[in-house]
Every structure is written in C-alpha cells, then in structure tokens.
Amino acid sequence: MKGRKVTKTSWNIAITVAIVFVASLFAVLVNVPEQLYVRSSDSVVTLDAVTREGGVEIVRYESVDAEVDYVYEIQTSLQTYVQDGVLTFDLSESNLDLTEQSLYRFENTSLEWVELETIFDLVNKTLNTSIEFSGNILVGVATRR
Questions:
Q1: For the domain 34-143, what is the CATH code?
Q2: Predicted model pTM
C-alpha cells in the first residue's frame, strides 16, 4: 500500500480554511461601531451617534439651575465612548426665542456651563450641536451670554 501524496492543492485548501477561520474569529471578537439613536422620554432631546459598546439613556432634571432651561443628563454605561454625535433639542412646544438660545454643557472641572456651538432651525424649532464624550454629561438650553 502506498502512502497518500499531499498535493499543492491540498495545502492551498488547508491554508484557505485557516485564514477564513481566523478572520471569522477576529470579526466576532472585535467591537464593531454601531449607530446609536436615543430619545428622551419626553421626546425633547435626541442623540444620533456612533458607539462601540454600551447603552445610553437621556434623563431630564427639573430646577437644576435657574439660568439653564431643559437640563438633561446623558448617561452612558461604563467605558462607553460616543463619537460623531448630533445632539438635538426639539423646542417646538416651548415659547423660547431660538435665535437667542444656545446649548450648554456642564464642565465638571470648572463647575460652569460652557456654551456649545449651536445651530438653530427656525422651521422645525430645534437646536443642534455636534458632540463627542465618554461618561455622563449634563446638557441644557439657556439664553446666550
């Protein structure tokens, strides 16, 4: 009885199977960015962004600061990084003059509200800003200072 001869084709098939297996394992184990769309329970604030892992929730707070209206905390799970985000405040139900309003973010280091670059849409009565962050943040609407 003669032994089987291993041909070049057999090796090519084995190498191809190994490459496909390693690539599949890599695809399963790597965190893939996913599109995130979150809306507050009162439908005033939405966040449209990209994240690699974790959940995000938007919670409204009442009477946090007399100078800042519509204060919300965007809560993320541990080690969640939100990138390429668009934060939108829908103020169609309010009587605020949008041309005099801006979005603010509370800075924990300075303990002050910092104005964000804000785009207002008078037709839809919304305020928008681009945002990236990790951890929890406070955002709100206030008259431009």
A1: 2.60.220.30
A2: 0.76
